[in-house]
Model the fold of this input.
Amino acid sequence: MQFLYPTFLFALFTLAIPIILHLFYFRRFKRVYFTNVRFLREVKEETSARSRLRNLLVLLMRLLTLLFLVLAFAQPFIPQDTEVKQGRKGVSIFMDNSFSMTAMSQNAPLLERARQRAREIVQAYSEEDEFQILTNDFEGRHQRLVSKEDALGLIEEIKISPATRELSKVLARQQQALRTGKAESQIAYIVSDFQKNITDLNTFQDTTLELNLVPLQAVQERNVGVDSVWFDSPVQMLNQTNNLLVSVRNYSREAIDNVRLSIRYEGQTKPVGTLSIPPLSARVDTVPITILRTGWHDGELAITDYPVQFDDKFFFAFNVAEAVRVLLINDNAPNVYLDAAFAGMPGFKADNQLSRNINYTAFPSYQLIVLQDLPTISSGLASELRQYVNKGGNVLVFPSRQADINAYRSFLAAFPAADFQVFEELERSIGTINMEEFVFRDVFENRSANLKLPVTKGNFRSSRNAIRGEESLLTYRDGSPFLSKYRIGQGNLYLCAAPLNEQYSNLAQSGEIFVPMLYKMAISSARAQKIAYTIGQDESIEADHTMSATEAVYKLRGASGEFIPEQRIIGSKVFLGIGNQILQAGFYDMFLSADTTLAKYAFNYDRKESVLDYFTPAELRAQVGATANVIDIMETAALTAKIEERSRGILLWRWCLLLALLFIAVEVLLLRFWKV
Done:
């Protein structure tokens, strides 16, 4: 047995006081006259013996009372296997308030159980100790040490948050805050459900910090959520049916049936269908959307699931342009076949420019740039085209019969793409079409139909070296490429081996191939329009900057209120830094003036918390080893006594106080009922 305050043991000298009082206490006897004195000696002897016995018992009770009072103040304890820490303590408590904490325990949500555990931890320490209350939000007010009373107040204010943090980052914040205090001992607690995707404590090695893990477990580990949403086509077209694909994922280990999916679009909510999803799998459903107007659109896909509901809705927003813009760069006169092809496509607008008079600043506004019959490609044009493709643009190259081989090689090598060798005036026929690639996918209803494939009377031989990202779309019968695609950065380069001039190729006359090819190339950007952002992950969004003034201040307005994001204007683009200013899922409008919406963005909660896969207490012990304590107690048990026992050993001062009160009670009974 040891004592927390051993100096109080000097008070044991007070035990001499009742002994001295007992020895020097002389009781005055009252003289009694008897008519018959023959029994006097007998009565005197009997009374004296009884009085002496009672006084000794009273003395003993007083001594025991003082003894146990002194021991109570010295606070004796029996040490456990952990070292008892004395003096002021710095205590950091991380309370997990992520979406997974909305799951149910036996009788309450996990967040309420975490709140109760956090209160019990605080109550286990003294008033002189310092406390930090930390959550996933990493708020500034949670980065300092506060008193016991303030800590209890902060615990009551904690609410569910979309933020989620790896526990290694949480520990770093706890250590940082505890170092600012003056406490002799530093103790950290993590109260969480310990999802496997955030629990990375196997590298924790700090021996100066006592780390305690308090796991909470949900009763039911079942969850279904809308995982992701995307369009089948990168560009959404007006007056056409566009297929929206939605992935609904079952995160549990049991099959779930009758998951009802609905969509809200253009002010109407419609049912989509019912899904049956196997365990730990996803089902992709197609939702056809007919677009009847240009401009910004927003929608919401939803399912019904309980109790974890934050991932039951998915918001999306997209823009339908007035027209798909195409730039045709020619050496002399425009190509009549290209003009006719784009003129016959509704929703397309083609502009012609000469190679010696190009407006480079307008490149980002075009979805497709076609180089047609250029004898050479200048270094300036080549540089601008590389930047344009890397940022998501599409470039289609039809070389000239009189092409400068060296200039073309320099242009193609920078992407990189297969370079041209020599021009061969030889009639050759196209043998195959790659119908698995986006450009020709779903173009022909009957793939086995006898199509009239193009024929060329001359073409450039290209190097046969394999180029990463190269994909053949149209191939000669000998296997050499006629039309190739190169995925470069976020865009695509399409390279034809033959000129478009009808003297060398009849591709332009093959309308069933030429027209759909141009159409799909124009909408085939490798960087599809981003229709949704994730809170906490996408901290920057890109928008068109159409104002001439660089001092323009863009604002965002939505479910989290109105705020001014960090902004950088580079050329025709503006990059908005979101940071942690968006906390609620929904739609957010970008504007310069309050009455004009320039763009609309949809933000959704991170699906990281949807995976209800937790570490059990035994698995936690195996992961952290001896570097942390896993406090696993019953759901209904109080944590305060457990912490006191671990931090101070088995405390005996309460028993000492109870025994002192007991001996006082015995003394009172002796004096009251033992008459002499």
Summary: Residues 40-74 form the longest helix (35 residues). The radius of gyration is 41 Å.
